Amino acid sequence: MGSSHGGGNYPNVGSSGITAEEAPRAIPVIDLSCDHFGADAPQDSEPSDYGSSDEDEGSPEPRVAPPHPNLSNIPFFESSIEDVEVDSIDIPSGSIVYDADEGVLRRGMLFNNKQHLQFVVKDYSVRHVRREYRVVESTPKKWKVVCKQNPSSDIDHCPTSQNCRWWLRAKLGAKTECWEISKLGPPHSCLMPTDSRSHQNLCKNLLASDMEGFIRVNPAYDVKYVIEHADSKYNYAISYQKAWQALKRARENVYGTWESSCQFLPKYMLALQKYNDGTIVEWLHKDQQVDGVFTLGYVFWAYKPCIEAFKHCRKILAVDGTHLYTKYRHKLLIANTLDANQKIISVVYAIVDEESYESWKWFLDALARHFVGDIVGVCLISDRHAGLLKAVGEVPAFCEPIGVHRYCLRHVASNFNSQFKNVQLKDLCYRAGQALTVRSFETVGPNNSLSLSVHPSLRTCKMTCH
Is 134 exposed, middle or buried (0-12, 13-18, 19+ CB in 10 A)? Predict the structure, then answer.
């Protein structure tokens, strides 16, 4: 949401002439300067832990490539987080595999990938033997862990007394392309803790894998249920912080991250234009500070069916804005109209960084250009936002004699009540604004105990409504 490459507007992107083969596979990354969480975020949480890892996991490097030359004026972006592809490696038939119910690790066991191996070892350690381990080696082709009770990372040369000699080493097979437990030490000789209700290896990733099924059914799954799940399945107590982070990771695994969702927005808009011929999308991006990186400022879109529907609706456009919550605190601007059956139709949407004169001016210019055109007598209804009022005065389509501008009655009544603090007066104010004839307008109040003579404030309200 901001100015385009070099500070100017992006031209309208047409809905034809672009095939799937022409779309770039890798494109510049987007700069996301905001980082806010919702109200339920722990106070000490990091801005975003997607791509962060436990001690035994690595983070991929971002991939950046130049945009397709034919689409250089379209604000495509690529997430700095590498997409995890569905694993297509099959474990050979007859191989030794892990049985979650049995909970036994054996030498020669095969796993689809490193993540599968790590998950199995965590499940074995947390749920079955109830011992903690630590990672002493982790590379793209090797992974080694030892019992936490062993202070040495070299099992072969550590003292045997008072040290648990359980350890495990796995490697990536050259032929099978599967991970295999190549060496496995003797069983744990350390004592099982009896008074501990926490486990270091019961991490957010393990809990998140359990939560994904629940998240698909109910995206609003509550943190308290994660805590209850950890207690019922693993018999361990976890902190609210860990439960919240696990739930956040599960949502990201299922629905993606805030960053990836934002960076897929240009591709989504292009898909709308491709498969809904006539759909309008306009972009305005902030000044480019780094080559290949854009900061989203504004985006405006209108679906083709909505554009056609407006031609058969009343010549009314009601505009308003609302907040976007959680991470990105941008604003959603929207324009509605009424059909002949008094049904509301939303015709235009826009996302802007804030409600200001600049954003409203940009939105109203696009609205007038794509919807009003040469139509005379369109009534724009809005609240009294200072930036909006200034912008309306500079768009001829919504100024007399071409168009008219009126205030939203709900906002008028609400502002009236904020000043006079009287619900009965607020109701009379609303009735005055709803009056369709001069006679009904003038009769509001005298038959009520709160008459105009007693409450001159209502006269002020009626003058405003008039």
Answer: middle
Please tell me the distance from the alpha carbon of residue 21 to that of residue 18, in angstroms, as a whole number.
8
Do 50 and 280 meet the contact criterion of CB atoms below 8 Å apart?
no
Cα–Cα distance measured from residue 113 to residue 111, given in angstroms and rounded to the nearest whole number: 6
Percent of the chain past pLDDT 90, that is, above it, reads: 45
Give the span between the Cα atoms of 253 and 213, in whole angstroms. 11
Give residue-wise pLDDT tens across range 311-355.
899 999 999 999 988 788 889 999 999 998 889 999 999 999 899
Q: How many helices (H) and strands (E) does the chain have?
A: 13, 12
The rounded distance, in Å, linking the Cα atoms of 44 and 21 is 45
Contacts of 252 (CB under 8 A, 6+ apart): 50
Range 312-316 contact pairs with CB under 8 angstroms and sequence separation of 24 or more: 312/339, 312/340, 313/337, 313/338, 313/339, 313/340, 313/345, 314/338, 314/339, 314/340, 315/375, 315/377, 315/378, 315/379, 316/378, 316/379, 316/381
The pair of structure tokens assigned to 99 is 């049985």
Alpha helices (H) in 110-166, listed in sequence order: 114-123
> CA angle, 249 as apex, 246 and 250 as ends, to 5°?
85
Three-class secondary structure of residue 459 per DSSP: helix
CA nearest neighbour of 328 among 425, 247, 263: 263
Cα separation of 358 and 367, whole Å? 14
Burial class, 127, CB count within 10 angstroms (exposed 0-12 / middle 13-18 / buried 19+): middle
Burial class, 85, CB count within 10 angstroms (exposed 0-12 / middle 13-18 / buried 19+): exposed
Q: What is the DSSP string of 77-90?
A: ---SSPP-PPP-PP
What is the pTM assigned to this prediction? 0.63
Mean pLDDT of the chain: 76
Instruction: Identify whether the C-beta of residue 316 lies closer than 8 Å to the C-beta of residue 309.
Output: no
Task: Supply φ then ψ for residue 344, to 5 degrees.
Answer: -80, 135
**In this predicted model, what pLDDT tens digit does every residue of 132-182 receive, in sequence order?**
999 999 999 999 999 998 876 555 444 444 578 899 999 998 887 899 999
